[in-house]
Amino acid sequence: MPEETPSQTIAHLLETLQAALREGNAAKAAALFGEDGYWRDLIAFTWNIKTLEGRDQICAMLQSQLPQLGPIQLRPDPDETPSQADGVTQGWILLETAVARGKGYLRLRDGKIWTLLTTAAELKGHEEPKGVNRPRGAVHGVHTQRRTWKEEREAEARELGYQQQPYCLIIGGGQGGIALGARLRQLGVPTIIIERNERAGDSWRKRYKSLCLHDPVWYDHLPYIPFPENWPVFAPKDKIGDWLEMCAKVMELNYWGSTVCKSASFDEATQKWTVVVEREGKEVVLQPTQLVLATGMSGKPNVPQFPGAENFRGDQHHSSRHPGPDPYRGKKVVVVGSNNSAHDICAALWENGVDVTMLQRSSTHIVKSDSLMELALGDLYSERAVASGLTTGKADLLFASIPYKVLPSMQKQVFDKIRERDADFYRRLEEAGFLLDFGDDDSGLFMKYLRRGSGYYIDVGASELIAEGKIRLKSGVDVKEIRAHSILLSDGSELPADVIVYATGYGSMNGWTADLISHEVADKVGKCWGLGSATTKDPGPWEGEQRNMWKPTQQPALWFHGGNLHQSRHYSLYLALQLKARMEGIPTPVYGLQEVHHLR
Ligand SMILES: Cc1cc2nc3c(=O)[nH]c(=O)nc-3n(C[C@H](O)[C@H](O)[C@H](O)COP(=O)(O)OP(=O)(O)OC[C@H]3O[C@@H](n4cnc5c(N)ncnc54)[C@H](O)[C@@H]3O)c2cc1C
Question: 175 CA distance to ligand 1 centroid (A)?
Answer without folding.
Answer: 7
